[in-house]
Design a protein that fits this description.
Four copies of one chain form a homotetramer.
Chain A lengths: L1 H11 L13 H4 L7 E6 L4 E5 L5 E2 L4 H12 L2 H7 L13 H5 L11 H9 L6 H16 L8 H9 L2 H12 L7 H12 L2 E2 L1 H12 L14 H14 L5 H7 L4 E3 L4 E6 L3 E6 L10 H13 L6
Antiparallel strand pairs in A: 1-2, 1-7, 3-4, 5-6, 6-7
Helix pairs in contact in A: 1-14, 3-6, 3-12, 6-9, 6-10, 7-10, 8-10, 9-10, 12-13
Chain lengths: 305, 305, 305, 305
């Protein structure tokens, strides 16, 4: 496996040249476009990793899958799905249009911004502080990394330039899908996007989902089997922005990407995968990272279909 | 398994009352709303079946998955995907809008009408007759049923009332996604929708996809492994109309439904499933049939995620 | 003329039964559905009026035409039209969709909410207080009524339930069409909507536009001829929500309606018209009020086309 | 007036360089981009003309206004407006989307392609030949030019490349807005677009509408006053494609343009105007032609608002 990883890293490094680092907030522009790394942890807890797998970056949209898990653990599932849908949207992640044209006006799914703002609003806690602490604690447990924290420069940058998300949140409030103070919900949303991780952390999360919620080291359960399945299902149908369908055809595994350059993938019963490569394609996915997963799929049978 | 099927049939028969048989063409209105049947064929070729599993009905949209397989076998994959996309549309199956608002104007995927008209146009043959014969022959091989044929009353009905599909086809021609004579393409499309099957036939197709293309009886291969995986992937992301995401969350298996009341499902490495229940929900899926699959998933581990 | 007004009031009173008073904010629900009044002031300053023409109500969207005039007087026209378009939208007044699908993302025109929030942001003043005072002063001059003021109950109600407008405003800020503090802009917008007028006040405004900006009593000019023409043009193409085209065909005069039940109309070179009738049709126009104007057009040549 | 026309022709000739002749059918590409001409006929039947005002070109969308008049004379108005709406669409002339997203699915208005295909289908006649003859005869009477005929090269070109219009027509048939044979309706539609005129002919049509249907030479009436008003109303709200609102603000007169390079305008009670300039802007309007009308409006009071 280590050889395979070395190989696909070398083969795909060139693709970074065809992509661009995210530029919508100044902080993200600082990423080095050529960075590339991948980490795999298998069911036996063996770790394989190459390249910039220990480089820190912000988790961005990948957090949507973890916050979805929290929302499903903090609330009745029916309640959650009365506030956010289960369908792929066919539109870009930050689209507002469907909130108006949909019969229900409900966000299509928890993997687009509108849906993730809703799931964020469903995290329980007596105060904004408690919600933030519960969220960070959950990320620390699921990554088995107590150093997980927020990159405050990115967070502030997100908050200042977050008017499009703000617009969505007010529309969602207007239509009854979010209760409470919008700025508080958005604050937690921007914080969740600004959590710093590396590819190793992502592989750990992917493994956790791959084992249906059981920690391979100590046998403890953090997330229930059903919630793990739901999260992986959304990762397949909506995890790679509006290239989710193509990724499912070409690679065929649950995966969630973020504009920070990360991809977290999970091969049921087999392994968790973390990828870092901040050069993005037009849809917002790591361009070399996606190519590495395609190549991995050609060499190792990971396709679930 | 037989007991489980008896059980879920009884439990879910009542749901037919909440649905309606398709009415957009007169022929489909003749279906008996209360009919319900299910058939499973497992990898050992064991057949379990209850209810109206031998009742004939027209395959309708389920044919989209088989014609996709043919298109992928008759053409270079790249060529096929230059004419039809890979993404869920987030819109109803007969929507025209995305053909206009999409950057590419390409049909989103081969499971909506626009996309299936494209894949139909990609079936090879020197004449309309030869294309029709090749298509029928392929359906006969994959169902292992030489009696498979077209219901000409439904076909004529489809053809007469097919102006919406005709509109799509001309738009697709205008935008360069279909070549050739539109009425010929539509004729083959309407014929494919009007092929008569029963739940047993559908289970056989599902099994074929579940075994990655190998006939469990004689070890022969009809469809390649990769094409089987692609078809199943599209079934997950787009197979159940605009309830595909919900079905993936609740059942988690590749499935394709048709407004004739059929559902063809495939559990990789395990079984093929055929369902018949013509009472449909608002999105066009068999209402009791979907419920039966949900219940089956609660009793047997079939979820692939 | 007085006889004609008496006549059309009687004939059309019954239509109130087919409409509903606005209910999106509690305060508007208090209106009496059966109220109906009309007032005409001609070029010779003769006033004709019947029914509830002195009943107070909030001006709502009618203010959009006056604030547009202010924005065009406070700024270079080119600057104004770099922030708001000139085209009918074909969509409901509170639609967000076009802000996303339009090439420019600019609000289509100043008569829909999004556009009016932009023109409101263009009113000059060193402080929110000064802007509000300038706006009220302008309304008082143009209505020749020094008692014009804000209904604070309606204003508070608008502000509390204004999350859809808030969403639009943040989207407009995100896309560069509004600068500055959003809550301040919205506050002025909600206040402008909550200004109290009667049909007499509206007729006076209409007359002012009809005389191209010259006060018929003292010959003073408040608005320039060109701005008057522009406002009347927008009233024709976009003044009656998404029934503007129908109103232009059936009546053929510049008119602007509000969900408070008012219609302000202007017949160039002839007269100003004010209408009050709070029972609205589905598109938000006074149902009996619109019918009265249709009937007026059958008896008096007012059609400008 | 003649001096004014000479002047504005010289001033605006340069704008042709910023536009392009229509290229969607080969025949239209043959136009000379630099051609420019304008013709005015006033109420006293005085003709003023400069430049290429006798150059022949195909009428294209300008025919929509004349066919609308015919449809309104051949049918009850209520029936016509049950098949086509009265609202500006806010979308390009050949947009299909609104046919799907509109509540009614009705074409928005008779000035976009979809709407004009409907009005074409409403022209009376016992056979396609009779309909064509009646249409040509009407064009000849209204232009007072017996030589009016069809450019068959353009017509054939339109017919071959007309799949987008064909798509619309089938959708309209599917939704009940067109009856009868689609190819016959389209044939008449393509023929109407291919009628050859010059700027003089267009000025004559514009004058006819300006005098509310009375021939200034012989006092005969061809079109009723009300139909003239309706046609001019649609010209204002929807006559200049999706720049109609801007044209109304900048010039303020009823006008209808075509991609052949013509503009037919009508100043009520004053004059008819015909323009020819085949270099188009992005929205499909003659670029120098539009500029000439703007300049004319600055020198002569023609604005109706």
């Amino acid at each position: 496996m280590q050889d395979i990883l070395n190989d696909i890293l070398q083969t795909n490094k060139k693709y970074a040249n065809y992509g661009q680092v995210a530029t919508y907030i100044p902080e993200l522009k600082k990423a080095r476009r050529d960075d590339l790394g991948i980490c795999i942890i298998d069911k036996e807890n063996k770790i394989y990793a190459v390249g910039d797998y220990e480089k820190k970056f912000t988790i961005q949209s990948i957090s949507k899958s973890i916050v979805l898990a929290m929302a499903l653990m903090d609330n009745e599932w029916e309640y959650v799905f009365s506030k956010v849908g289960m369908e792929p949207s066919g539109d870009p992640f930050n689209s507002i249009m469907k909130l108006e044209t949909n019969d229900t006006k409900k966000p299509c799914n928890p993997m687009i911004n509108a849906g993730a703002i809703v799931t964020t609003s469903l995290i329980k806690g007596d105060s904004p502080q408690e919600k933030e602490e519960r969220m960070l604690e959950f990320f620390r447990r699921i990554t088995k990394n107590n150093n997980i924290g927020i990159n405050y420069d990115v967070y502030k940058s997100e908050k200042i330039s977050g008017d499009r998300n703000r617009a969505m949140a007010y529309l969602l409030k207007n239509d009854g899908f979010i209760n409470g103070n919008i700025e508080e919900v958005l604050d937690l949303y921007f914080k969740q996007c600004s959590i710093e991780v590396d590819a190793l952390d992502l592989a750990r999360i992917g493994l956790h989902l791959a084992t249906y919620g059981i920690d391979v080291e100590n046998g403890e359960r953090i997330i229930s089997e059903n919630v793990c399945r739901m999260v992986k299902t959304f990762m397949v149908t909506c995890g790679m922005y509006d290239a989710s369908g193509e990724f499912a055809i070409k690679v065929g595994i649950p995966a969630k990407s973020g504009v920070g350059g990360g991809i977290m993938a999970s091969v049921p019963n087999k392994m968790g995968i973390g990828v870092y490569g901040p050069a993005l394609d037009k849809k917002g996915n790591s361009i070399a990272g996606t190519k590495m997963l395609e190549d991995l799929g050609k060499k190792v049978q990971i396709n679930i279909f």
